[in-house]
Write a structure and sequence with these properties.
Order of helices and strands: HHHHHHHEEEEHEHEEH
Shape: elongated
Distance between the termini: 158 Å
Number of helices: 10
Number of domains: 3
Largest sheet: 4 strands, antiparallel
Number of strands: 7
Length: 370
């Protein structure tokens, strides 16, 4: 920098002129040098970009090159401005200049974070089976710009000599007040973050829905996990939006988290005088007629209880797809009734035996006395 300053002084002195003219010539020389430097940098970047286009290796790097252009331009501005401020010794402008530079630098830095997030999302997220990672990167993409600009503003105010502590303290107090006023919303936001981290379910998982309308399906598929609420489409094609805070308070029944295979239990009652072994065989044959019923482990029927008017059997069968649960129950119950009728296996109904007992009593005659 000193060598450049001495060289510029010699050129100005050679040209002659008054002190004011020399200052103008120095300023013009610095600006021309800065322009030439930036032109050279742009040319180099253009040649690199052109070479990458020819090699077919550029792909999605154009945004990175644009960020580099902005940063190099700001670097030239910083060097030029610092030299002019030092040359004219304008201390008042110095702080304002550097504050503006910090705010301007925040823009390409924010763009760089967005590019980095897109890169990791493209190269990491799509290689995983879960879709929760998409939500995490989307949240980062939304908030990283706000955080970057906020930090830049705080640094700029600090350079200007403004005491930022009262602002930070005030923001803290305001944050507490807002927190009390919107505690339910914040609770849902925190619960949403915990759901993303804990992963009790993922998009397309089938879970139990405890808040479904009366008489409608009580389970459905997760279609969206938001930061405030989760959307579930029931088997009746009804979208139920449940606040994340409510989900975190309840037991979550997930039918497809580890595997799509589940075991279905179906209760069937037969009369006491029915052939139990025959009834078991009929039930197992009906279950095996379904293509999605698994043979390993194979279906089985157990006796669970002796009821008031029936022997309570239970079919336990594994199915390949949890979404076939209700279809399995409906088909087996319907088919078992038909086959029981054909095979003479009675399905009981409540009965009462009434026994009437007649008891003869002794009858005593009466006589009239005169």
């Amino acid at each position: 920098m000193n060598t450049w300053h001495e060289w510029l002084e010699k050129i100005v002195q050679t040209m002659g002129g008054t002190g004011y003219l020399q200052s103008v010539l120095k300023t013009a020389g610095v600006l021309v040098a800065a322009f030439i430097l930036y032109t050279i940098i742009k040319r180099i970047i253009f040649l690199v970009e052109k070479k990458k286009h020819q090699n077919g290796s550029l792909k999605g790097d154009t945004s990175v090159l644009e960020i580099i252009k902005k940063l190099l331009f700001l670097a030239v501005v910083v060097v030029t401005g610092s030299y002019l401020i030092r040359m004219y010794q304008i201390q008042v402008v110095e702080r304002v200049f550097y504050s503006l530079i910090i705010l301007l630098v925040a823009i390409p830095v924010k763009d760089f974070f967005h590019v980095a997030i897109r890169y990791f999302k493209h190269n990491l997220v799509h290689k995983t089976d879960t879709k929760i990672d998409d939500i995490v990167f989307d949240l980062l993409n939304r908030f990283i710009g706000v955080i970057t600009i906020a930090i830049a503003i705080v640094l700029a105010l600090d350079i200007l000599g403004v005491n930022v502590m009262p602002f930070i303290a005030g923001a803290g107090v305001a944050g507490i007040a807002i927190g009390f006023a919107a505690k339910d919303t914040l609770s849902n936001l925190i619960a949403g973050v915990l759901l993303i981290l804990d992963r009790p379910f993922e998009i397309n998982d089938r879970i139990e829905v405890w808040s479904a309308p009366s008489g409608s399906a009580s389970w459905g598929d997760v279609v969206d996990i938001g930061i405030r609420a989760t959307k579930i489409r029931t088997t009746d094609n009804i979208i139920i939006i449940i606040p994340n805070n409510e989900i975190m308070k309840r037991d979550i029944v997930n039918y497809t988290l580890l595997s799509s295979r589940i075991r279905v239990r179906i209760n069937i009652g037969v009369a006491y005088d029915a052939d139990i072994e025959k009834a078991k065989k009929v039930i197992i044959d009906v279950a095996n007629s379904l293509e999605w019923v698994m043979q390993d482990p194979e279906p089985k029927v157990v006796v669970r209880n002796f009821g008031e008017s029936s022997i309570d059997l239970q079919l336990r069968v594994w199915i390949k797809n949890a979404r076939k649960r209700m279809d399995t129950i409906s088909y087996i119950m319907d088919r078992v009734k038909s086959v029981f009728d054909e095979e003479g296996v009675e399905i009981p109904y409540p009965r009462r035996d009434i026994v009437v007992t007649y008891k003869e009593g002794n009858t005593e005659g009466s006589s009239n006395k005169d």
